[in-house]
Amino acid sequence: MKLAFYAPMKPPDHPTPSGDRRMGRLLWKALENAGFDLELVSRLRSLETSGDAAIQAGNERKGRVEAERLVTAWRADPAQMPEGWFTYHVYHKSPDWIGPYVCEKLNIPYFIAEASHAPKQANGPWKPGYDAAARAITQAACVFHMTNLDGACLKSLIADDSQLVFLPPFLDTEAFLTEANENVRVEDLVVAAGGQRDKKNLLAVAMMRSGDKFMSYEQIGLMLPLLKTDDWQLLIVGDGDRREDIEKLLSPFVDRIVYLGQQPSSILPAVYRFADVYVWPAHGEAYGMAFLEAQVCGLPVVAGKIRGVPDVVKDGQTGLLTEEGDFGAFAEAVDFLLASLSVRGKMSEAAHQFVRSERGLEKAAKTLKHYIGKVLK
Predict the structure, then answer these.
(1) How far apart (Å, rounded) are the C-alpha atoms in residues 117 and 121?
(2) In which domain, by residue range, is 204 found?
(3) What number of CA atoms fall less than 13 Å from residue 298's CA on the CB side?
(4) 182 falls in which pLDDT band (50, 70, 90)?
């Protein structure tokens, strides 16, 4: 069965890495594993972050041109026409201006993964995008929501519960672990970067860029002085245009911060296994793919109880989640895990099993195959 694939926020072959691109690629792989033949039908980006009405109107016009191009091409050659259309990530800042129109004209079913509906934007600067996203969601034969929070918000648009399917964030665990370099000596990397041996190692893995990522680094800076444990160091894997600002932000702890820079995916599993606790406030993040990476490597997590984080970290079982902005509680959770080897051991095993069994590519592929297949049969 052939599916058209479209990601209005960022196409899966975009050169700039991000969590959104990564999930797009994972969905592509899961759909292929489910037996679908995919075609990336457009690379038009509809992301508009300023709320500019003129830009949104321009994006709508560009989307209509793309839609007409596809309709014309597939009507001229019906053998190339897909049986359905799959769009990844639709919300008021990146609506799908193409898929709903094409599906209506060609009478093919429309599917969405990771749709968000925020009623507070109904009369705000993104109203055109909000209205377009809402129309797309209501038209979809099936909406795969990736967090329970999104699912609750989408119920106001989707009357039939069978059209709303929980597809939690997932990881290609086999590829991630199989590609790991088992010969890397992380301790040597840490020492070469200025770190010390025989310290308890906290770890954060995140790009150093503006927005939510920078805010999380800022919050780490507010949490660190509240730690009661003394023999710790924080390993940071990541780089970006705000690195200098982040280093300045964390300069009060210069002797305890170890900047490992951006590391290839083959090195990351060893880094996760070397660390004792993964720490990340997750300010403003939808869920956080690094949490799944850390856990599949057996690394317990301390994170903010924000948005979709509870869907990727099982509070009290694979990690500890604290209320947003409560840096005292965050520090207490870190102290507790650093002091409790037995608890870390139990969480390590639970974290590994959770991701392998509940958040793997195979389970996601089965979910997609079942629900899309029911519509297309």
Answers:
(1) 9
(2) 174-358
(3) 10
(4) confident
